[in-house]
Amino acid sequence: MVESQSPKPKLGLQERVDEARKGTFVGNASSQQVCQILLALASMVSLKNLPGEVNRNYLVVQIKKNYGTLTLAELELAFSIGVSRKLEGVDPDSHYNDLSYKYVSAFLAAYEKLKSRVLMQKSTVQKEESTSDKEIKKRNQECVQAAFEKFCKGENPSIPFFSIYEEIKTLFAPYMRNGEFPKDEIWKKANAQVTALKEKQQRQKQEGWINSAVTEIIVPKDATGIAKALSAEWLFQKKKEEGVINLFDQ
After folding, report:
1. Taking the model in full, what pTM does it have?
2. Among 100, 103, 53, which residue's Cα sits nearest to residue 79?
3. If exposure means fewest CB atoms within 10 Å of the residue's CB, which of 15, 207, 237, 248 is most exposed?
4. Percentage of the chain surpassing pLDDT 90?
């Protein structure tokens, strides 16, 4: 029995343009490749009188000359969109039964305008996403700074140290270079804590003292999270001793 394959999801216009921009440029393609795409266009619009060899060669030369920076896939996309009446200013029925350069270039010129608009929109979205990322980073740093200020006062930072680590990990660099950061010692402590949790969990199961008032002990799969937490706490203490006021103003 042959399993039915689910249809591929339809791509949006931006994805179709991005995909079509890959591949061989018209300017680098063979005349035969370009000609095949033109004949496919003629078929799509039910054009009966195909151009002779001389006119066909002229058409291919002009397209390679004026639209050589488009890809073969973009030619196909431009004609496909145009025939579907989704290219502004293009009437696929205006060929007058003649595959002329004027008729073909109308598709390609309109496609180039469409592509420019699509790429501009994509660039705007990427800039907005970049701005959003910066705002998120700024808010995260403000939260970590507030936690550091609490730590310096001897208060609970209110944010788990393993979460703080992700925002301050770049601050470890100078201590790693000069050998001050006690990496081996921290990993030793982290592994010891994991071992202690495993032993405590085992006793909890053996003695059966899990009930509604006692939370079951969860052991992490490795010591990475604990090591991050210990590292963040070490850095907070180091910065406090150095008299640092703002962690990120350096």
Report:
1. 0.49
2. 103
3. 207
4. 60
